[in-house]
Amino acid sequence: MEALKQRILEDGLAIGTEIVKVDSFLNHQLDVAFIDLIGQEFKQRFGDIMPDKILTMEASGIPVACFAARHFNNIPVIFAKKGLPSTMNEGLYHARVKSFTKGILSEARVSQKYIQEGHKILIIDDFLAHGEAALGLISIVKQAKAEVLGLGAVIEKEFQGGGARVRDLGIRLESLAVIQKINDGVITFR
Amino acid sequence: MEALKQRILEDGLAIGTEIVKVDSFLNHQLDVAFIDLIGQEFKQRFGDIMPDKILTMEASGIPVACFAARHFNNIPVIFAKKGLPSTMNEGLYHARVKSFTKGILSEARVSQKYIQEGHKILIIDDFLAHGEAALGLISIVKQAKAEVLGLGAVIEKEFQGGGARVRDLGIRLESLAVIQKINDGVITFR
What we know:
Oligomer: homodimer
Helix content of chain A: 25-40%
Strand content of chain A: 25-35%
Distance between the termini of chain A: 12 Å
Structural class of chain A: alpha/beta
Low-confidence stretches of chain A: none
Mean pLDDT of chain A: 95
Strand order of the largest sheet of chain A: 5-4-8-9-10-11
Radius of gyration of chain A: 16 Å
Number of strands of chain A: 11
Number of helices of chain A: 5
């Protein structure tokens, strides 16, 4: 997605060799009109599939998943929760997920009510780095005996290997911007 | 908002005297078309103000804030973060916030880059219970020497006092559904 690559180059901040900060428009401050275009792009890339629901990870996957859902006939979005609210006490699927940027291990949970056997699920997230969140979400869909139709990532950092891990599972991956390397503040796209 | 009250009665689950679960459409599984209507309602209620930005709390405030922003000419949304990503290291505003449903104390953070002196801010959140999150967000806006034009809550649990605390600060509050009490599984609206 050309407009996304341009936006990353203009407003993103490359740090060291591992991190690109896009918190001015994607994951702290949100440019909702732009994220809606991202949602539309996911619909184009996945135009041939008919998911029942979109699954994402809180928190920064939520805006992208919501705007994508608008373009998929307003199908429901489910976001996996990392905390454990007292209101969440019924049957849960869970997966242990390590956050790359926070460096902490957390438990992602989804209520069994909302993903059921046979559901066709599209997974959407903001970043695909080492693939921890993606693999956790895939595991949750498998626990439900539901089907992953595909995984859409806004930004894939190819050099961290998450994309390869997802494809190795036979899962179709669409990344809107693929970063090959980050070096001395310079971002190189594939 | 009549459609919201109906939806709470149909799909919500009242537990004890304190909790109403709306995770089938508002804060775990998301009905994006319905949340867009909620956003439209906020625009109607706050039709006379012109905020520069919308501020919300991760995670479940995000969808409501995003869809509200669409109806306010796509103004930016900022969500306060509860974790501390390694990518967030510059100047931060923070507020200590106790989650009613999770029972834990966390630190909400907003980058100083995104709220600045003189900004006019609309705060949006899914629930207003004891007011902890609301007061934390108000404190963050004040730290920035910015102005709170108003606070919009999807569901206010009036009996928990958060609404009174917000109004006592002289802040305009619009709650789309106000719950007066919860008793034996029965929800009474004001």
